[in-house]
Amino acid sequence: MQSSFLGPLVLLSCWIASEAPPSKYYIHFTFGLTWDEAQHFCQSYYTDLATISTASDMDNMDLKQYLVWVGLYRERWSWKWSDGAYYSVSDWGKNEPHWDPHCASVYFSNKKIYSRDCGTHLMFVCRKGNDYTFVNEAKTWPEALDYCESQNGNLASFRSSDMNQIFTEFDFPVWIGLHRDGGSFIWSSGGSGVTSWKTGEPSSNANCVALSSLSRLMATEPCDVRLPFVCMWDGNVNVLLVTEEKSWEEALEHCRGLSGDGLSFDLVSVQPGDEHQHMMGKIMAADTEEVRSNTAGLTRCVS
CDD domains from the entry (predicted)? Predict the structure, then answer.
């Protein structure tokens, strides 16, 4: 469903900012971006790539979850395994498979299968005989297939009964905000933080830093490698949904009128593309009939 910001009436949603001491949250994304892309994504939609201010911050990161490519793909009207296997597929996630995405992935949390755009960069699992190998660098589905075939294997096929044995806790790197600038390492947010390096790190051969999902140790990686990443979010910046229809001028006045008692509000512009789709997802997730029935015009407020 698409929305327009051109209508005379808008359903109002607002970003709220508090002057109280910030609460920091971490959001782990399972698709892969380069370090620069991840930084841009986090700064656009959240606060920044993760800064680890204290050792306890690492405990607040849920890094166990992952989404991986497997060998299932849609050809015309049916789903097939890339290695020609005839295993039946019954473990689709809720409302899956979707019509448009032609490639399949497995989510670790619930061991369910989800259709995804084949051009998304995800980690993946190869199969060679009865052996399964987790590859912790994100690639598109065709790139992952090529990689597995280059290792004399294929993207993973499996029986439903084998999923718990195949998709276990894997160790993989995730981008954080630490990177080398000149001769020293600094955090993308400009703040201070702690480091916990693997033995032999930091290497002089790479300038961006990733955190191990299991050991929580840091290592340098080439900045152009695509990895999952962790964004940092100021918990005092939030979305307020106002389920009232207003003109743009009324919406602006309404948001600014909410300011006070340590809170400030304003309208924000939303650029076409990813930012627009991201905000639409947040608004559509609100469980109100007003939101579901008024998607012709949407705006939001920001501090």
Answer: CLECT (cd00037)
Closest alpha carbon to 174 in 120, 123, 103: 123
Q: How many domains does the chain have?
A: 3
Residues 83 and 201 grouped into a single domain: no
Q: What is the DSSP letter of 276?
A: H
Bridge partners of 131, per DSSP, are 128
Distance CA 111, CA 166 (A): 10
- 134 domain-assigned: yes
Distances (CA, A) of 300 to 44, 241, 274, 277: 15, 8, 16, 13
Please report which helix (H) or strand (E) contains residue 10, including its range: strand 10-18
- The label of the residue with tokens 């947010």 reads 189
Q: Flag residues of the chain having pLDDT under 50.
A: 1-22, 237, 269, 271-277, 281-282, 284-303
Question: How far apart, in whole angstroms, are the C-alpha atoms of residue 222 and residue 186?
Answer: 16
Please say which residue of 143, 166, 189 terminates a domain.
166
Which residue type sits at 240? L
Residue with tokens 């499996």: 158
Supply the DSSP symbol for 160. Answer: G
CB of 103 within 8 A of CB of 115? yes
Domain boundary among 233, 257, 282: 233
My answer on whether 226 and 245 are in the same domain is no
Quote the pTM value: 0.71
- Give the pLDDT confidence of 30-84 residue by residue, as tens digits: 999 999 999 999 998 888 999 998 888 888 788 989 999 999 999 888 999 999 9
Give me the domain span that covers residue 153: 67-166
Looking at the DSSP bridge assignments, the partners of residue 7 are: none
